[in-house]
Amino acid sequence: MSGPSQFAPFAPLLGLLLGLLCLLAAMRAGRRRRLVDNLPTSRTTGVFIGLVELKGAAEAEHPLVSHLAGRACVQYAWSVQERWSRTVTETYTDANGKTQTRTRHESGWTTVASGGEMIPFFLKDDEGVIRVMPMGATLQPLGIFDVTCGMGDALYYGKGPQGAVPNSDFRRRFSETGIPLHTPLYVMGQARERDDIVAAEIAEDKNAPMFLISTRSEEQVSSGFAWAYIGWGIFGGVLGLAGIFARERMLNLESPFVPAYALVAGGYAMAWFLAWVWMVYNSMIDLRQRVNQGWSQVDVQLKRRFDLIPNLVKTIQGLRDYEQNLQVELASLRAQSLATPPGEPGPDYRACSKTLVAIAERYPEIKAHESFLNLQKNLADTEQRIALARSYFNDIATFYNTRLEIVPDRFIAVLAGMKQRTLMAANEFERAPVVVELAS
Questions:
Q1: Does 429 fall in a domain?
Q2: What mean pLDDT is reported for the chain?
């Protein structure tokens, strides 16, 4: 056995290995699609620590200016490619053992310059803004510039290098992608605490399953992962069958060995089915964990309200009582000073003056009405956080309950013993309300 035939036994194994690698890529795309579908969209003011999905517009106080298009952006990347072509003459030995010559034409594009920048930016929705640190994210930007020109165009040397590549046709293609200011974005990433202020931000996390910043809609992102799942899966099956076909060609078999094709096709289909079951099961478990996480977020916010309000009320009561006592003390001292007869001030008058000066020095700047306004703001913020957490829980619990009903997910849910979760009504599942009376 010599020549290509000696590699024939390994062709099916190679085809099977490549097919399994494609199947892994398909499962990765499938998991990401289900993650996009499973995760509810959060508001910027209701972001909690963990993996979140957001939608909004890209904003920045000091945006970048893109290199080619000159547009205000938060991220851009550009490249300049130069076209080349050449004719190659080569010698080869034909089937009869004679030396022959032939020519062929080659052409292509070579990148001669490139660059780009990105900056932290804010994602703005109807509720507010949140900072996004795009470093390390998978970006899906817009195409904002694409021009092909020759040497007669000012752009040729204006934005490109002065030199030329070997065998140049003196044609250049200038292209640029970016995320312009105010562009609607879909963002999925890990939320964490900011270092400078008490607020959340979206940033890279090595343990997060995905960090994506896309100019496409959620539906388009999900559809893209779905097509990748189908495409990689089919391509893997084709590679597996191609290994059998290559073996037959190497051995010069005249008729195809049908059982071998059937065995590979059946084995690959079974592997795909088992991988799908594994993917769906893990996705359902992940979704159930997110439902539990959503519930815990509601509980955390309710506890925050339970602990925060009494402390705030006590603080305000103390400030109010202090101010009331101070006003009584001032009134007493004022009456004492008015009762002192005119003329040479006595020791009581001088003591009264010293007391007034001391009171003025220690009189707090904060007023009672400002504290009540602060209490009102904290109450409103707390109730808003509770409403957002409740809405998040209801959204993800609704999706979870739907998954338990639709086919084929419901069969996996039955095997896993998963049960539906009750949604949270506006006046249910809350801690006992805090009732505080402020004495007049």
A1: no
A2: 80
